[in-house]
């Protein structure tokens, strides 16, 4: 319950100190008498953002302070906002500086300001359960239920995570089993990878191999002045030498083998 409101240099108010009774309090007056200014000061106390227009003309600072009685508490809750032209603003709760966010959280349940045709929280279905809990003094039960419900949601999320992990592991196991079956059905040899790499290399260079083989064949066997022809000439010269000198160090079989090897190389290429 708001017990006291102090305002200084706010809009048209130079200084105001209002004491509220614990009973029903009513402000009356003609339009422009200042009722809405007091509500504006309360809104500022509950966390509304301010602009330079709320300062009393000619003043550089303002403050709004409220004393609130809290049921079950011996001491009042003291809330104060201090503002200065240029943007500086301070919030204090029980003389301790806090953030605007903390102010809004603290004052969210202290009071509800409603105007004509303004949407009321009590008409919001989202607040009906909370209203019933407070009416039946069930806040403690509601807090315990919320705690247990949050724990249940956490455990449910953990179970779903475990189920998803198990599903992924089973899927992975099936995939690995399929890959193993494919590898076994391929019946790969020990050195098959090296052989396949070599075969790929041969196929990739087939044109080069054909060209080189043709060139070697021509040089060794097919040209008019091929190695095979020259070896045969050498063999004839050797035979003539042998008729003259039978003690030549070169054997007849070596010359014959040279001719045979040259022919085989040419045909192999």
UniProtKB/TrEMBL annotation:
GO function term, MF aspect, one: ATP hydrolysis activity
GO process terms (BP): DNA recombination; double-strand break repair; SOS response
Coiled coil regions in record: none
InterPro entries linked to this entry: DNA_recomb/repair_RecN, P-loop_NTPase, Rad50/SbcC_AAA
Assigned GO CC terms: bacterial nucleoid
UniProt keyword Membrane present: no
Domain Rad50/SbcC-type AAA: 4-216
UniProt entry keywords in alphabetical sequence: ATP-binding, DNA damage, DNA repair, Nucleotide-binding
UniProt KW Ligase keyword: no
The family this protein is said to belong to: Belongs to the RecN family.
Database matches in PANTHER family: DNA REPAIR PROTEIN RECN
Protein known as: DNA repair protein RecN
């Amino acid at each position: 319950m708001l017990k006291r409101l102090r305002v200084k240099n706010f809009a048209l108010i130079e200084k105001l100190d209002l004491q509220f009774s614990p009973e029903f309090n009513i402000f009356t007056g003609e339009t422009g008498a200042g009722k809405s200014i007091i509500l504006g000061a309360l809104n500022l106390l509950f966390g509304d953002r301010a602009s330079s227009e709320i300062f009393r003309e000619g003043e550089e600072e303002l403050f709004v302070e409220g004393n609130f009685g809290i049921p079950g508490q011996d001491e009042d809750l003291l809330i104060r906002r201090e503002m200065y032209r240029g943007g500086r603003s301070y919030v204090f709760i029980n003389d301790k500086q806090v953030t605007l966010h903390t102010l809004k959280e603290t004052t969210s349940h202290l009071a509800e300001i409603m105007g004509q045709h303004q949407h009321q929280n009590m008409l919001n279905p989202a607040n009906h359960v909370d209203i019933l809990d407070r009416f039946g003094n069930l806040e403690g039960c509601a807090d315990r239920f919320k705690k247990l419900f949050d724990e249940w949601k956490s455990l449910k999320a953990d179970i779903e995570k475990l189920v998803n992990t198990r599903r992924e592991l089973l899927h992975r196991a099936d995939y690995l089993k399929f890959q193993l079956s494919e590898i076994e059905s391929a019946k790969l040899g020990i050195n098959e990878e090296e052989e396949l790499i070599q075969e790929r290399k041969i196929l990739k260079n087939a044109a080069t191999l054909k060209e080189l083989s043709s060139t070697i064949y021509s040089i060794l066997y097919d040209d008019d002045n091929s190695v095979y022809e020259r070896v045969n000439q050498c063999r004839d010269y050797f035979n003539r030498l042998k008729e003259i000198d039978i003690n030549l160090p070169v054997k007849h079989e070596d010359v014959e083998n040279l001719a045979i090897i040259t022919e085989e190389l040419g045909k192999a290429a």
